[in-house]
Amino acid sequence: MSFLFRKPKVKLTRLFYATDIHGSERTYRKFINAGKFYNVNILVMGGDITGKLLIPIIKEQNGRYRATVQDNLERFSTENELKELLDRLGTLGFYHKVMEEDEFQALQNNPGEVEKLFHTLAQERLVAWVELAETRLAGTGIKCFVTGGNDDDPGVLSAIKREGAESFIACEGELVNVDEDHTMVSVGYSTPTPWKTPREISDEELGQFIEKIVADVPDMSRTIFNFHDPPSESTLDTCPMLDWNTDPPTPIMKAGQIVMHAAGSKSVRKAIETHQPMLGLHGHIHESQGVAKIGRTTCVNPGSEYGEGILRGCIVTFGNGEVEGFQMTSG
Q1: Global pTM?
Q2: Would the N or C end of the chain have less CB density within 10 A of its end CB?
């Protein structure tokens, strides 16, 4: 007599991953709302969460305003025009401060005060983002895990560590449980770039740091490597080769074509090849959206278009140590 046995049903978890939003207000709000919109259990933000520029908005004696945005001098005469500017700056991820002419002149002559103001405004935005996540996700059961990236100043990043937070979890350098059966470790550092960003280390140092934090992972087949730097030679790290001797760095051309190369981390790739986690979440290279397999590990880079207010992401479904499916998103 033969018997038919039904395969036990695997409990599946749905995760939404995005990265490299660089301070963009619109993109971050879309990220927080993605939990309900895509019906996921987990949100993961993979680094480079702070903005890059501070735009002074000078209030002139005639009651008008002026600001230089992306090398263009713009003038505004009404409060509505000013509001439109602030919304645009928020989408671009820029910080701003409205100031009188004398304050602007004083700041121009004091780089230290400019940096201090930049860090203050960046921290204020992160504090507001933590509060938004706590409010929007309260009672939903959705957890939001966030790490910094190479562009994020360590002092500014301290703002995401909020004691008593229930939904928003700052997870860098830690082993966290993303559900009952799976864990995640996160690293936001990158290898050196032409821009000399705040959190760059050598590839060798990055490898040492990774090995230190993965040492406590109980089961590599059921863990996620949330590493900002993508693995080298994976197609997730392809970008223009740049001349580091120019300011700003410029693409290298050959036979009329931009030379492309792999800019990811060899240490990240080695860690994935050695430990074979279930899933690798990566970013850093905005133009290199894709999914790649390294052994059994599914590696993802959703890319980034934060400046246009577009949230690129990836929904990953997994259970019992296996990635069951993934879907790139854009909106």
Answers
A1: 0.94
A2: N
